[in-house]
Amino acid sequence: MTLVNDAAPEVRSTGRxxxxxxxxHLDELTARAGLSPEEQLATRAVATVLPFRTNAYVLExxxxxxxxxxxxxxxxxxPQPDMLPAEDVAVLxxxxxxxxPKAEVEAAANRVRMKLNPHPAGxxxxxxxxxxxxxxxxxxxxxxxxxxYFPKQGQTCHAYCTYCFRWAQFIGEPDLKMAGDDxxxxxxxxxxxxxxxxxxxxxxxxxxxxxxxxxxxxxPLLELEQLESIRIGTKSLAxxxxxxxxxxxxxxxxxxxEQIVESGKNLAFMAHFSHPRELEPLVLTEAVRRIxxxxxxxxxxxxxxxxINDDPKIWETMWRTQTRMGMVPYYMFxxxxxxPQDYFAVPxxxxxxxxxxxxxxxxxxxxxxRGPSMSATPGKVCVDGVLDLFGERVFQLHFIQxxxxxxxxxxxxxxxxxxxxxxxxxxxxxxxxxxxx
Length: 437
Ligand SMILES: *Cc1c(COP(=O)(O)O)cnc(C)c1O
Description:
Helices cover 32% and strands 19% of the residues. The chain has helices at 26-32, 37-49, 56-62, 72-77, 86-97, 102-114, 123-126, 183-191, 211-222, 236-239, 250-262, 282-293, 312-324, 341-344, 348-359; strands spanning 20-22, 53-55, 130-131, 134-135, 139-143, 146-149, 198-201, 229-234, 266-272, 297-304, 328-334, 370-375, 379-389, 392-402, 411-415. α2 (37-49) crosses α5. It is globular, with a radius of gyration of 22 Å. Bound molecules: pyridoxal-5'-phosphate.
């Protein structure tokens, strides 16, 4: 395996066949980042718990190896030695060090995973509806107008983000997985629920699928008059833009997009960009142009992550560049309460300041973005501000989305707490409970 490629940048991985790198390549890669043998071992220990996968494009075009391991894109894809509690890392490192049997390592890793709240916000218990003679696998219906679908073949990504809130999807534990493989069941469910106007295909990454598989899921939906939009949640533009430019089925994929637009529905790409560097490569510019040429709209979203993008300048640059390229900024999320949340969390008060300081500098065309938004059990909650009212410092918040649609867009208050990082940390202000309680 050669990781150091001497070819000119423009003929490197760009336009080449997709190639994945996994945990078995970690030692070679972390050595390139200059980690000590102990740090390399700890990195492998963390990777027994949290999934690791990246690809040649991310390694050669996005990461700045001269800045690794502090480089934000390196931190975005590589597990960090201190991402899990030190005592857990020590136990796992020890098992790896003495080459313990695979089953023993896996059992220890699993014990650590269970402490990490693998399915936050009641996803498994609250959102999966019953229909016909049972639950619909891979389908979530939380807000009236939108159904989420997790196709079985879309439950991986071109590379994994270290902060991923869906990390439990990737570790082969069937109990922790959401996935469906019956496109007609999806169509039938939507047809039986006339309030549904939008289907969001997500994962993992819907764009890991080939054109013929994605077509099997999407084509049956086109005949449904009630559907106004089909959304595709994806990080592929950041991690593998070749999908839309040079992959063997790139042109077929674009024709599928055209067909959806021609059927009279809005095809929205919900593109995940975490850092402005992901917007720089020429192949990305070309992918954006080709997708937009089909009539699809690209909307952008990402969580705010400590040590990766916790700076208003970064968000300002992302929103400006995206708007310039014809993409529409959509959400800034608060990192969810799962996985190594302590490692990546930005307190709500700070998140609000970062959002405001970026938002105030961009034109109205970029102010389509909303946030910072917490996708929590009762709904999506936006932090609107910090103010002093009646002698008390409070957060003002509102629901962008709520299980109870009546509460959407009505302000409510919580006591100011500079350390709060999630909705659960907040206490109601001027009331003895929150509106949804
Ligand atoms: C965010 C989200 C949606 C979509 O909400 P929009 O405000 O329409 O983008 C739908 N379902 C779930 C479960 C969500 O978290």
